Amino acid sequence: MSKPRIGFHLSTAGGVFNAAERANQIGANTFQIFSSSPRMWRPARLEQVHCERMRELRKNYDCWPLVIHTSYLVNLCSQSEVVRAKSISAFHGEIERALALGAEYLVLHPGSWRGLTREEGLRLAAESIAKSLDGLNPQINDFQILIENTAGAEFSLGSSFEQVAELIHRLRNVAPVGACLDTCHTHVSGYDIVTEKGYEETARQIEATIGAKAVRVWHTNDAKAARGSKLDRHEQIGRGTIGVEAFRRLLNDKRFAHCAFIAEVPVEQPNDDQKNVALLKSLVHPTEKAGKPTANRANRKQSVK
Prior knowledge:
Layout: E1 5-9, H1 18-25, E2 30-33, H2 48-61, E3 66-69, H3 81-101, E4 105-108, H4 118-132, E5 144-148, H5 161-171, E6 177-182, H6 183-188, H7 196-209, E7 215-219, E8 222-223, E9 234-235, H8 244-251, E10 260-263, H9 272-282, H10 286-289, H11 297-303
Parallel strand pairs: 1-2, 1-10, 2-3, 3-4, 4-5, 5-6, 6-7, 7-10
Antiparallel strand pairs: 8-9
Helix pairs in contact: 1-2, 3-4, 4-5
Region (Disordered): 284-305
Function: Endonuclease IV plays a role in DNA repair. It cleaves phosphodiester bonds at apurinic or apyrimidinic (AP) sites, generating a 3'-hydroxyl group and a 5'-terminal sugar phosphate.
Domain Xylose isomerase-like TIM barrel: 21-278
Protein backbone atom coordinates (compact mmCIF):
# COMPACT_ATOMS: atom_id res chain seq x y z
CA MET A 1 0.00 0.00 0.00
CA SER A 2 1.13 3.61 -0.52
CA LYS A 3 2.50 5.59 2.39
CA PRO A 4 -0.07 7.23 4.70
CA ARG A 5 -1.01 10.81 3.95
CA ILE A 6 -0.28 12.82 7.11
CA GLY A 7 -0.29 16.59 7.38
CA PHE A 8 -1.34 19.81 9.07
CA HIS A 9 -3.54 22.88 8.58
CA LEU A 10 -1.10 25.53 7.38
CA SER A 11 -0.93 29.28 6.84
CA THR A 12 -0.96 30.79 3.35
CA ALA A 13 0.83 33.99 4.44
CA GLY A 14 2.88 35.50 1.64
CA GLY A 15 1.04 33.58 -1.08
CA VAL A 16 -1.11 30.48 -1.09
CA PHE A 17 1.70 28.35 -2.57
CA ASN A 18 3.82 28.93 0.55
CA ALA A 19 1.66 26.37 2.34
CA ALA A 20 3.05 23.68 0.02
CA GLU A 21 6.60 24.78 0.86
CA ARG A 22 5.79 24.67 4.57
CA ALA A 23 4.21 21.22 4.25
CA ASN A 24 7.41 19.88 2.72
CA GLN A 25 9.52 21.54 5.43
CA ILE A 26 7.60 19.91 8.28
CA GLY A 27 7.58 16.45 6.70
CA ALA A 28 3.92 16.48 5.65
CA ASN A 29 2.71 14.87 2.43
CA THR A 30 -0.78 16.41 2.61
CA PHE A 31 -2.11 19.64 4.06
CA GLN A 32 -5.13 21.85 4.59
CA ILE A 33 -5.56 25.61 4.14
CA PHE A 34 -8.13 28.37 4.11
CA SER A 35 -8.38 29.82 0.61
CA SER A 36 -9.52 33.15 2.07
CA SER A 37 -9.99 34.66 5.53
CA PRO A 38 -12.25 32.30 7.52
CA ARG A 39 -13.84 35.22 9.37
CA MET A 40 -14.53 37.72 6.57
CA TRP A 41 -17.26 37.67 3.91
CA ARG A 42 -15.07 39.46 1.39
CA PRO A 43 -12.97 36.80 -0.38
CA ALA A 44 -9.32 37.06 -1.19
CA ARG A 45 -8.35 37.10 -4.86
CA LEU A 46 -6.08 34.27 -5.91
CA GLU A 47 -3.37 35.12 -8.40
CA GLN A 48 -3.24 32.65 -11.30
CA VAL A 49 0.53 32.46 -11.01
CA HIS A 50 0.16 31.48 -7.35
CA CYS A 51 -2.31 28.73 -8.26
CA GLU A 52 0.09 27.41 -10.89
CA ARG A 53 2.96 27.51 -8.41
CA MET A 54 0.87 25.57 -5.88
CA ARG A 55 0.19 22.83 -8.43
CA GLU A 56 3.88 22.70 -9.40
CA LEU A 57 5.11 22.43 -5.82
CA ARG A 58 2.59 19.76 -4.89
CA LYS A 59 3.68 17.69 -7.89
CA ASN A 60 7.35 18.16 -7.05
CA TYR A 61 6.85 17.21 -3.41
CA ASP A 62 4.31 14.40 -4.05
CA CYS A 63 2.01 16.28 -1.68
CA TRP A 64 -1.67 15.37 -1.92
CA PRO A 65 -4.50 15.68 -1.34
CA LEU A 66 -4.86 19.42 -0.91
CA VAL A 67 -7.75 20.08 1.47
CA ILE A 68 -9.43 23.47 1.75
CA HIS A 69 -11.56 24.35 4.76
CA THR A 70 -14.60 26.54 4.14
CA SER A 71 -15.00 29.85 5.97
CA TYR A 72 -16.54 29.66 9.44
CA LEU A 73 -19.11 32.29 8.43
CA VAL A 74 -20.86 30.06 5.91
CA ASN A 75 -24.22 28.81 7.22
CA LEU A 76 -26.08 27.10 4.40
CA CYS A 77 -29.09 26.16 6.54
CA SER A 78 -29.62 29.50 8.27
CA GLN A 79 -33.21 30.59 8.91
CA SER A 80 -32.15 34.07 7.72
CA GLU A 81 -32.56 34.43 3.97
CA VAL A 82 -29.93 37.19 3.99
CA VAL A 83 -27.33 35.05 5.75
CA ARG A 84 -28.19 32.06 3.59
CA ALA A 85 -27.80 34.10 0.39
CA LYS A 86 -24.42 35.42 1.54
CA SER A 87 -23.40 31.87 2.48
CA ILE A 88 -24.36 30.49 -0.93
CA SER A 89 -22.32 33.23 -2.63
CA ALA A 90 -19.37 32.63 -0.30
CA PHE A 91 -19.48 28.87 -0.80
CA HIS A 92 -19.64 29.35 -4.57
CA GLY A 93 -16.39 31.32 -4.23
CA GLU A 94 -14.89 28.57 -2.08
CA ILE A 95 -15.59 26.02 -4.81
CA GLU A 96 -14.18 28.34 -7.49
CA ARG A 97 -10.92 28.80 -5.58
CA ALA A 98 -10.66 25.09 -4.77
CA LEU A 99 -10.97 24.21 -8.45
CA ALA A 100 -8.45 26.93 -9.43
CA LEU A 101 -5.93 25.50 -6.96
CA GLY A 102 -6.52 21.92 -8.06
CA ALA A 103 -7.68 20.93 -4.57
CA GLU A 104 -9.06 17.45 -4.14
CA TYR A 105 -11.32 18.27 -1.19
CA LEU A 106 -13.36 21.18 0.20
CA VAL A 107 -14.47 20.66 3.80
CA LEU A 108 -17.79 22.15 4.90
CA HIS A 109 -19.58 22.64 8.21
CA PRO A 110 -23.21 22.68 6.98
CA GLY A 111 -24.28 25.22 9.62
CA SER A 112 -26.87 25.83 12.33
CA TRP A 113 -30.60 25.21 11.89
CA ARG A 114 -31.57 27.26 14.98
CA GLY A 115 -35.15 28.52 14.60
CA LEU A 116 -36.05 25.70 12.22
CA THR A 117 -36.61 21.96 12.46
CA ARG A 118 -33.71 19.61 11.77
CA GLU A 119 -35.55 18.38 8.68
CA GLU A 120 -35.84 21.95 7.38
CA GLY A 121 -32.15 22.47 8.12
CA LEU A 122 -31.18 19.39 6.11
CA ARG A 123 -33.37 20.47 3.20
CA LEU A 124 -31.99 24.02 3.14
CA ALA A 125 -28.39 22.83 3.38
CA ALA A 126 -28.83 20.47 0.43
CA GLU A 127 -30.63 23.14 -1.63
CA SER A 128 -28.00 25.77 -0.78
CA ILE A 129 -25.09 23.52 -1.76
CA ALA A 130 -26.83 22.79 -5.06
CA LYS A 131 -27.29 26.54 -5.71
CA SER A 132 -23.63 27.16 -4.85
CA LEU A 133 -22.63 24.96 -7.78
CA ASP A 134 -24.42 27.08 -10.39
CA GLY A 135 -22.11 27.74 -13.34
CA LEU A 136 -19.34 25.51 -11.99
CA ASN A 137 -18.08 22.10 -13.03
CA PRO A 138 -16.94 20.25 -9.93
CA GLN A 139 -16.62 16.97 -11.86
CA ILE A 140 -12.90 17.58 -12.38
CA ASN A 141 -9.63 17.13 -10.49
CA ASP A 142 -11.08 14.24 -8.44
CA PHE A 143 -12.78 17.05 -6.50
CA GLN A 144 -15.24 16.39 -3.67
CA ILE A 145 -17.15 18.46 -1.14
CA LEU A 146 -16.69 16.84 2.27
CA ILE A 147 -19.34 17.22 4.97
CA GLU A 148 -17.65 17.43 8.38
CA ASN A 149 -19.18 16.09 11.57
CA THR A 150 -19.56 18.66 14.33
CA ALA A 151 -19.02 18.74 18.08
CA GLY A 152 -22.69 18.14 18.86
CA ALA A 153 -24.06 21.62 19.63
CA GLU A 154 -27.85 21.50 19.83
CA PHE A 155 -28.68 23.11 16.47
CA SER A 156 -25.52 22.18 14.60
CA LEU A 157 -26.17 20.16 11.46
CA GLY A 158 -23.85 17.17 11.30
CA SER A 159 -23.63 16.43 15.02
CA SER A 160 -24.10 12.71 14.42
CA PHE A 161 -22.89 10.26 11.79
CA GLU A 162 -26.52 9.75 10.78
CA GLN A 163 -26.93 13.45 9.95
CA VAL A 164 -23.71 13.51 7.91
CA ALA A 165 -24.88 10.41 6.05
CA GLU A 166 -28.31 11.89 5.39
CA LEU A 167 -26.89 15.07 3.89
CA ILE A 168 -24.49 13.08 1.71
CA HIS A 169 -27.44 10.97 0.55
CA ARG A 170 -29.45 14.05 -0.39
CA LEU A 171 -26.53 15.44 -2.38
CA ARG A 172 -25.46 12.26 -4.15
CA ASN A 173 -27.03 13.33 -7.46
CA VAL A 174 -26.12 17.02 -7.07
CA ALA A 175 -22.39 17.14 -6.37
CA PRO A 176 -19.37 14.90 -5.79
CA VAL A 177 -19.63 14.52 -2.03
CA GLY A 178 -18.05 12.60 0.83
CA ALA A 179 -17.22 13.02 4.53
CA CYS A 180 -14.54 14.51 6.73
CA LEU A 181 -14.52 13.24 10.31
CA ASP A 182 -12.87 15.06 13.20
CA THR A 183 -11.57 13.04 16.15
CA CYS A 184 -12.20 15.88 18.62
CA HIS A 185 -15.74 16.44 17.32
CA THR A 186 -16.42 12.71 17.38
CA HIS A 187 -15.18 12.43 20.98
CA VAL A 188 -16.94 15.47 22.46
CA SER A 189 -20.21 14.69 20.66
CA GLY A 190 -20.32 11.45 22.67
CA TYR A 191 -18.76 8.68 20.59
CA ASP A 192 -16.14 6.52 22.31
CA ILE A 193 -12.87 6.39 20.37
CA VAL A 194 -10.63 6.14 23.44
CA THR A 195 -11.15 2.55 24.53
CA GLU A 196 -10.39 -0.33 22.19
CA LYS A 197 -13.94 -1.66 22.41
CA GLY A 198 -15.44 1.82 22.01
CA TYR A 199 -13.28 2.62 19.00
CA GLU A 200 -14.39 -0.56 17.25
CA GLU A 201 -18.06 0.18 17.96
CA THR A 202 -17.65 3.74 16.67
CA ALA A 203 -15.92 2.48 13.51
CA ARG A 204 -18.81 0.06 12.95
CA GLN A 205 -21.29 2.94 13.30
CA ILE A 206 -19.36 4.91 10.68
CA GLU A 207 -19.51 1.89 8.38
CA ALA A 208 -23.26 1.48 8.96
CA THR A 209 -24.13 5.14 8.35
CA ILE A 210 -21.64 7.10 6.25
CA GLY A 211 -19.59 4.16 4.99
CA ALA A 212 -15.83 4.02 5.52
CA LYS A 213 -15.12 4.53 1.81
CA ALA A 214 -17.02 7.84 1.84
CA VAL A 215 -14.69 9.19 4.55
CA ARG A 216 -11.83 10.91 2.70
CA VAL A 217 -10.22 12.99 5.45
CA TRP A 218 -9.77 12.65 9.20
CA HIS A 219 -8.99 15.77 11.21
CA THR A 220 -6.68 14.27 13.81
CA ASN A 221 -7.17 16.52 16.83
CA ASP A 222 -6.90 15.69 20.51
CA ALA A 223 -9.51 17.32 22.78
CA LYS A 224 -9.27 19.62 25.77
CA ALA A 225 -12.80 18.72 26.92
CA ALA A 226 -14.37 15.48 28.10
CA ARG A 227 -16.21 12.99 25.97
CA GLY A 228 -19.82 14.10 25.48
CA SER A 229 -19.12 17.68 26.58
CA LYS A 230 -19.94 19.13 23.13
CA LEU A 231 -17.08 21.63 23.60
CA ASP A 232 -14.96 22.01 20.47
CA ARG A 233 -11.51 22.72 21.91
CA HIS A 234 -8.56 21.14 20.10
CA GLU A 235 -5.43 20.01 21.93
CA GLN A 236 -1.95 18.82 20.96
CA ILE A 237 -2.01 15.16 19.99
CA GLY A 238 -1.47 12.94 23.01
CA ARG A 239 -1.99 15.74 25.52
CA GLY A 240 -5.77 15.75 25.68
CA THR A 241 -8.68 13.59 26.77
CA ILE A 242 -8.44 11.32 23.72
CA GLY A 243 -4.83 10.22 24.14
CA VAL A 244 -2.26 8.86 21.76
CA GLU A 245 -3.52 5.25 21.54
CA ALA A 246 -6.74 6.29 19.81
CA PHE A 247 -4.69 7.91 17.05
CA ARG A 248 -2.53 4.79 16.75
CA ARG A 249 -5.66 2.68 16.19
CA LEU A 250 -7.05 5.11 13.63
CA LEU A 251 -3.84 5.46 11.62
CA ASN A 252 -3.49 1.70 11.37
CA ASP A 253 -7.14 0.92 10.65
CA LYS A 254 -7.25 -0.56 7.15
CA ARG A 255 -10.83 0.62 6.75
CA PHE A 256 -9.45 4.17 6.60
CA ALA A 257 -6.17 3.50 4.81
CA HIS A 258 -7.33 5.61 1.85
CA CYS A 259 -7.83 8.71 4.02
CA ALA A 260 -5.69 11.78 4.59
CA PHE A 261 -4.96 12.53 8.26
CA ILE A 262 -4.61 16.24 8.97
CA ALA A 263 -4.04 17.86 12.37
CA GLU A 264 -5.66 21.19 13.26
CA VAL A 265 -4.14 21.60 16.72
CA PRO A 266 -2.83 24.81 18.31
CA VAL A 267 0.67 25.94 17.36
CA GLU A 268 1.78 27.29 20.72
CA GLN A 269 5.52 26.82 20.37
CA PRO A 270 7.83 26.95 17.35
CA ASN A 271 7.64 23.76 15.29
CA ASP A 272 4.50 22.43 17.03
CA ASP A 273 3.17 21.68 13.54
CA GLN A 274 6.25 19.63 12.70
CA LYS A 275 6.18 17.85 16.07
CA ASN A 276 2.55 16.80 15.67
CA VAL A 277 3.14 15.53 12.13
CA ALA A 278 6.18 13.58 13.34
CA LEU A 279 4.17 12.08 16.21
CA LEU A 280 1.39 10.94 13.89
CA LYS A 281 3.91 9.41 11.50
CA SER A 282 5.58 7.56 14.38
CA LEU A 283 2.28 5.87 15.26
CA VAL A 284 2.00 4.09 11.92
CA HIS A 285 3.01 0.45 12.20
CA PRO A 286 6.17 -0.41 10.22
CA THR A 287 4.26 -2.73 7.90
CA GLU A 288 1.91 0.15 7.04
CA LYS A 289 4.83 2.45 6.21
CA ALA A 290 6.11 0.10 3.54
CA GLY A 291 5.10 0.57 -0.06
CA LYS A 292 5.90 2.76 -2.98
CA PRO A 293 4.68 6.36 -3.17
CA THR A 294 1.93 6.88 -5.69
CA ALA A 295 3.44 8.20 -8.89
CA ASN A 296 0.64 10.10 -10.59
CA ARG A 297 -2.89 11.40 -10.34
CA ALA A 298 -4.38 8.36 -12.08
CA ASN A 299 -2.88 6.06 -9.47
CA ARG A 300 -3.88 8.47 -6.68
CA LYS A 301 -7.46 8.43 -7.88
CA GLN A 302 -7.49 4.64 -7.73
CA SER A 303 -5.90 4.56 -4.29
CA VAL A 304 -8.63 6.64 -2.60
CA LYS A 305 -11.63 4.88 -4.08
